[in-house]
């Protein structure tokens, strides 16, 4: 074998080795989905297509404990709600298909345990598995409890950390107030008299003022979307994802150039929320 043939053989072997390494690379998103593809040794690979081979939209839900993040996801994906509160102890992923404005999107929804902070760089993201995928999400849904507006401070801190640690210019963020059914739901008893009624009305007034301040902050200063819903009664849960997908779809149509204007008001109950079809 002459020197030229030997060089050609070396290049061919190196190319085959690179191709084999590409085949054997593990796609963590694919493994999370539970794919069971096999590799045919010595022949062409027989691998189920990875979700990343599709145009995936990666959505991450974040929020304080017990605000209803998992319930929102389960109502959207399965139309199911559980009265029992079970804290999320590990990361869960869901893969619904969504049609919005005649565009089909494969959506990866990630439900993670409560995180103490948003990972400031890739090292912190990979140091703990629950942080994996947070920094490269397509969009975020930040959830708080409308009946406990103090939970808004948690997502406010997270949002500040997100802005400081990654480029958020073309990353849609939707703030969701859950548990709308609990707002001022406790009616005074006949024995309580006018004093308890006055106290209840005062508490509701304070809550409404805090909510107005939150909406003003989110829409005018953060330039983010805002939706109120009730996961328990499946009220406006579809509207949550419809609003988010319209924000994502608008970015796709404009080539990733995000409008400086906040999304249109959608927290009223008059919106037609069924135009977002879930496959």
TrEMBL record:
Chain coiled-coil ranges: none
Region (Disordered): 256-279
PROSITE patterns assigned: RAB (PS51419), RAS (PS51421)
Highest taxon of source: Eukaryota
Molecular function per GO: GTP binding; GTPase activity
NCBIfam families per the UniProt record, alphabetical: small_GTP
Full protein name: Ras-like protein family member 10B
Native organism: Pieris brassicae
